[in-house]
Amino acid sequence: MNATDGKRTLVLIRHSPYGSSLARASVDVALATAAFEQPVNLLFVGDGVLQLLSGQDCEALGVKNLGRLLSSLPLYDIDHVYVDAEAAARYQLDLDAAPVAALPLDPGAMAELVSTHDHLLGF
Fold first, then answer.
1. Is the pLDDT of residue 3 over 50?
2. Contact 110, 14 (CB under 8 A)
3. What pLDDT sits at residue 95?
4. pLDDT tens digit string along 55-83?
């Protein structure tokens, strides 16, 4: 498969940033997919929206800050990032302060987004 195939991948991110390695793995998969010039978009849902919190201090945990990694998404041509609007509201997430621009979607819009992609990767 090459970039001209037009196969679109949606990475569904639903784990909080520092509870397990799944949060980091989901972003790494998206970056690896994009590095092979495959169109990839991200959708943060549930606890995964916590990855979009600004100013996370993870030094005490001894792990790398995912916010810095997320801010590099445009360098990999990952320009479409979406977030579950209900989860963002539940966690009182300020999307204007997120490390990457994310468009909030209601449940119907999320279902439509999923249906427009050829591949769905869930973490």
1. no
2. no
3. 94
4. 665 565 555 667 778 988 999 999 899 99
Report the pLDDT value the prediction gives residue 2, as an integer from 0 to 100.
42
Query: Could you give the 3-state DSSP secondary structure of residue 47?
Result: helix
The contacts of residue 114 (CB under 8 Å, 6+ apart) are: 10, 12, 43, 120
Alpha-carbon gap, residue 61 to 59, rounded angstroms = 5
User: Which amino acid would we find at residue 24?
Assistant: R
Domains contained in the chain, CATH given: 3-122 (3.40.1260.10)
Dist. CA 9–CA 40, nearest whole Å: 5
**Cα-based angle 116, 23, 96 (whole degrees, multiple of 5):** 70
Q: Which two tokens stand for residue 103?
A: 């468009």
DSSP at 110: H
User: Rounded CA gap, 65 and 71, in Å?
Assistant: 10
Residue type, 120: L
Compute the distance between CA of residue 34 and CA of residue 61 in angstroms, rounded to an integer.
28
